[in-house]
Amino acid sequence: MQKYFILIIAVSFSFFILAQSKFNYPDTKKIDLVEDYHGVQVADPYRWLEDNNSEETAIWVEAQYQFTENYLSQISFREDIKNRITELWNYEKYSAPKKVGDFYIFSKNDGLQEQSVIYIQESLDAEPEVFLDPNLLSDDGSVSLAGLYFSNDNKYAAYAISRGGSDWREIFVMNVDDKSLLEDHINWAKFTSIAWFNDGFFYSRYDEPEEEQKLKAQNEFQKLYYHKIGTTQTDDALVLEDKMNPKRGFIASVTDDEKYLIINAWEGSAKSNLLFYKDLVNDSQIISIVDTLESEYNFVANIDDKFLIHTNNNAPNYRLILIDLENPSRENWKDIIPGTQDVLSSVSYVGEKLIATYMKDANNVVKVYSQEGKYFYDIELPSVGTVYGFGGKQTDKEVFYTFTSFTYPPTIYRYNVETNETELFRKSEIKFDIEDYKTKQIFYESKDGTKIPLFITHKKGLDLNGENPALLYAYGGFNVSQRPSFRLTALPLLENGGVYALACLRGGGEYGKEWHEAGMLEKKQNVYDDYIAAAEYLIENNYTNPNKLAIQGGSNGGLLVGAVINQRPELFKVAFPMVGVMDMLRFHKFTIGWAWVPEYGSSDDPEQFKFLYEYSPLHNVKSGLNYPATMITTADHDDRVFPAHSFKYAAEMQAKSTSENPILIRIETKVGHGAGTSTSKAIELYTDIISFMFYNLGLTGI
Question: Cα separations (Å) of 370 from 375, 380, 417, 669?
């Protein structure tokens, strides 16, 4: 897509005055294209916008950019918003340290650096030194670090980079001692791990696409390779491919003792996978452990020739099992940590103990067990919230974890595995008085009576008079759980008397497999009903009103926002469908979109077409509706959700809208689906989002 962002095109059209009730949107031509879907004639007048390399699309993008920028530039407090966000963003941000041989590795951002820098230190008290600075990889911060993996002897480090936020990865190798770069260079890796073994590593890649198709073409026939240090990519050994299943992909890992290669084979977004292993010591053939796509199987660790596997097989909320390679058949699988009513989110095996992180009503609880599954004790957490970390090698005696909540910035703790002692390691210092705010969790009823968790954060003592500006965020899909976390970009709203709410909708993973499946395929409308009911709860309980309520969601959450403003536009004043899946009839035709068919269904299937067509945001835009003020966001290097989704949706909204509220599309450059976005780009994006929200909610600034 980069072509049409480089073009400098003079586009002239009439601009508007903010106070007007109608908007003179840029012209978007329509073509006479109608497609037959199982006897239903569906018009697609903006399909030409799917050609991301055409000059015609470039002209349209430039016109939309100018239109959006003209609107935003007239918001008088836009610069004040930017200054406040910059001030909030400007604090030191650390990752938890990771033990690498005799050293510790961690990342740090001084505050406003475009990308975080990787540091290395001999001990936790030693002076850190720069190990890898991604800010030196590009002049504008558009190249980001996408993974760092150390060889088992800690002699080498392989790192992956993303250019412009794309999912494509390049892999480089450096010497750990002198930080010199080797000549090794891997291209066209995607959805890959880097798993070291001896003097090389396993990785996954696709065949090289045509240049003009690299951000658009379907990704199929992934292959697993082994690269030996000091050789070229053309010499890499093919380890595994599947010529009969184009959608199949492979993720590799190697056990701490380097005895086994573990291969997770996936197909699409369905939470199920195949599991294989290879004895690396005896160079055996690849052997199947799980040969049917019916459940999720995550390798945790090996204890000699026995595997610990985290799975939802016969346990919708997950369990930990032991598989003996001498007797690997299912009837011999042994429960180590059985499934419970709470979701077993993850398990680490360190210091000969099992550290199990559970999710209870979208909050985390951490328990410690022996390797045989005997319960020892809970790890005491600072409060209700979210925890992540606990990673390490089996022999490690200490681990680090990070805790966060809505009013609790990410804080790093050091945990002694042997003594069950926790100590504060590093705390963030942010220019915001956190003690002035509070969060509570309530459970509201959806349309069918299902109880849905909702977190609500606001200033202490806030008058619930129904006049407070509010932002409601949700996702609702792909088994992704929404949990309490520090949302820096919500702070300007909170400190201006606003309410921030996070809804844990069906389709997510908050209550395991059944909760996820209740928001998939033909049940997807449950997710929209849940979101609408959350908005109704906030209104009915006097947190806000329809003229003060904004909604936001990204990716699958962008689809969510697009669907609900078609169904209940009167509930919302402002909407942000961000990098959304908006064309539910063609999403599977671009990049990795086919992988979402298990979640959504496919228009190629006559029965699935029916429910997709019923809620597809693009196909359900209606004339005459008073749509909320809407800012659609996308980016030129988004090869996860192809930007044409947002292009076509914006064109349709602008063509049919008779609303007095604006319909804008904000198109970013040198940015992808979100990961790796530079600090300055992120600040610019949220400056525009918050400015647009404040202006249309009637706030006068900060």
Answer: 7, 18, 11, 50
The per-residue DSSP string of 513-548 comes to HHHHHTTSGGGTHHHHHHHHHHHHHHHHTTS--TTS
Taking a C-beta distance cutoff of 8 angstroms, is the pair 280, 258 a contact? yes
Print burial letters for 441-463: b (CB count within 10 Å at least 16), e (below 16): eeebebeeebebbbbbbbbeeee
Compute the distance between CA of residue 650 and CA of residue 641 in angstroms, rounded to an integer.
Answer: 15
Domain range for 609: 432-697
The DSSP string of 98-164 is: EEETTEEEEEEE-SS-SSPEEEEESSTTSPPEEEE-GGGS-SSS-EEEEEEEE-TTSSEEEEEEEET
204, 231, 254 - which closes a domain: 254
| Whole-number Cα distances in Å, 648 to 183, 377, 475, 617, 642 | 43, 54, 22, 10, 11
Domain boundary (254, 276, 291) is at: 254
Q: What does pLDDT average to over the chain?
A: 94
In a domain, 212, yes or no: yes
Sign of the CA dihedral with 372 first, then 378, 384, and 388 last: negative
- pLDDT at residue number 189: 97
Where does the pLDDT of residue 15 fall: very low under 50, low under 70, confident under 90, or very high at 90 and above? very low
Hey, how many other C-beta atoms are within 10 angstroms of the C-beta on 70?
Answer: 14
pLDDT in tens, 100-113: 988 999 999 999 99
The yes-or-no answer on residue 555 being catalytic is yes
CA distance 659 to 105: 53
Number of structural domains found in the chain: 2
- The answer to whether residue 241 is domain-embedded is yes
In a domain, 439, yes or no: yes
The verdict on whether 673 is a catalytic residue reads yes
Beta bridge partners of 477: none
Spatial CA neighbour of 458 closest among 443, 474, 438: 438
- Bridge partners, residue 458, by sequence: 438, 499
Block residue for tokens 């000969």: 352
Mean pLDDT of 12-16: 34
Q: Which of 204, 348, 673, 678 is catalytic?
A: 673
The domain that contains 533 carries what CATH number?
Answer: 3.40.50.1820
Residue 336 resides in a domain = no
Nearest-Å Rg of the Cα atoms of the chain is: 25
- Give yes or no for a contact between 187 and 170, defined as CB atoms under 8 angstroms apart: yes
Catalytic site residue from 555, 603, 616, 691: 555
Q: Are 600 and 634 in contact (CB under 8 A)?
A: no
Length of the chain in residues, anyone? 702
